[in-house]
């Protein structure tokens, strides 16, 4: 069955990984990416929508009808942010976006990139906020929804890295990639993209997926 997903976060490492896998996958018929700023990726089955305010996607309603999946890969770091600000960007904005999509496409499968250690009762602020976001998204009313608790993402392609310290860390770790792939908390960019496509096409019992679940899904597919 051909898949038509909506994608956010294509300017970042995770979103770009999912985008490139979608473009390569024959099961993906068309994809629309919503970005705050243009992304220099072009493909016959790709449409780009530039929209600055993700808290209000009402102006995009008609452009977002007729899609059957959303790969929500946009996100912000909690570093330097108050809990109030992080909640607005990570909970309120995402939930508002999801509710509008659900109204437009009730049969849609929604996937959200969370993080390893997410816990609604956790000690860390970011973990609690993302935990609340996960709970809400699982109950918005979509046909199906999955929370991807990503650990370490090991790039197999050239991916954008927005911050200098992240780019430096990956340069240091690159020679260790074959070893790191053996750990349960690590997965690759290609496996992440494939796993999202798999859950959008084939319902899974588990709705919260850790890196080990991502790797297992791809192996079994």
Automatic annotation (TrEMBL):
Its main location: membrane. Residues 7-91 form the NAD-dependent epimerase/dehydratase domain. One of its GO terms (cellular component) is membrane. It comes from the Bacteria. It holds the Pfam family Epimerase. InterPro entries: Epimerase_deHydtase, NAD(P)-bd_dom_sf. It is found in: Membrane. This is Uncharacterized protein YbjT (DUF2867 family). It comes from Neolewinella aquimaris.
């Amino acid at each position: 069955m051909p898949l038509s997903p909506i994608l956010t976060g294509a300017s970042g490492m995770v979103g770009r990984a999912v985008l490139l896998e979608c473009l390569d996958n024959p099961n993906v018929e068309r994809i629309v990416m919503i970005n705050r700023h243009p992304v220099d990726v072009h493909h016959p089955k790709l449409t780009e929508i530039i929209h600055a305010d993700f808290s209000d996607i009402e102006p995009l309603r008609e452009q977002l009808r007729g899609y059957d999946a959303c790969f929500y890969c946009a996100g912000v770091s909690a570093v330097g942010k108050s809990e109030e600000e992080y909640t607005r960007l990570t909970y309120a904005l995402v939930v508002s976006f999801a509710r509008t999509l659900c109204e437009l496409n009730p049969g849609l499968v929604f996937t959200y990139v969370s993080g390893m250690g997410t816990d609604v009762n956790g000690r860390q602020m970011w973990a609690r906020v993302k935990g609340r976001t996960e709970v809400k998204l699982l109950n918005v009313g979509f046909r199906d929804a999955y929370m991807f608790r990503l650990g370490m993402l090991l790039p197999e392609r050239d991916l954008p890295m927005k911050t200098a310290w992240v780019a430096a860390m990956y340069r240091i770790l690159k020679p260790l990639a074959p070893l790191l792939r053996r750990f349960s908390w690590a997965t690759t960019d290609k496996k992440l993209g494939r796993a999202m496509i798999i859950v959008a096409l084939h319902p899974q019992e588990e709705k919260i997926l850790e890196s080990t679940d991502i790797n297992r899904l791809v192996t079994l597919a």
